[in-house]
TrEMBL record:
Organism classification: Eukaryota, Fungi, Fungi incertae sedis, Zoopagomycota, Kickxellomycotina
GO (cellular component) term, any one: Smc5-Smc6 complex
Domain of life: Eukaryota
Signal peptide: none
Name listed for the protein in its UniProt record: SP-RING-type domain-containing protein
Gene Ontology BP term (one): protein sumoylation
Keyword Iron found: no
Gene Ontology molecular-function annotations: SUMO ligase activity; zinc ion binding
Pathways involved: Protein modification; protein sumoylation
PROSITE patterns found in the cross-reference section: ZF_SP_RING
Amino acid sequence: MLLDSQRRLEAEEKLLAKLSSRSDLAKPEAEYGKWWEEEEEKLKNMGDAAKYGSNEKYRDFRQQVWEVTHEGEAMPALFGDANQEGSDEELVISGARLTYKCPITTTWLNDPVSSKTCKHSFSRDAITDYLRAQRGECACPVGGCSRRIRAQDLYADRVLERKVARHLRQLEAEESAATYTVVR
Ligand SMILES: [Zn+2]
């Protein structure tokens, strides 16, 4: 793995620095070989968390992979303990709900529009009816949001529309994969 070679390179640089600071050694090559063996042993015994959890490149990489496969959701901790995994999962699920469901209908966003003032999104029909019932201006229906919404603050959110569509396709794919497993 690329990371392993990066670790080895770092270790090697460290050893070379150590070596050049020691002019007293009779057999530098032999010493170097010995140090290197110790480093290798250390690397081998390192757990994944110690080896990769602290590596920024690896974290960035994980983050990128996560964003491609779980758009709009928060990434759970890299190496959380087993007890916390459940709560991470719940956070992710509620995050997806907030992002892809209309707060008025509580179903998947349909023809989503977003507010320019607070960035909250709604199914077009739902917020249109809601606004009409409130005579053209309403408090944002999202709990905890204190912004007001008027029809002219709303814009068709094509980006979000594509995200919802992709999310639904993903769910469908997962569902059919699950069905396939059951049938087998
Ligand atoms: Zn809002």
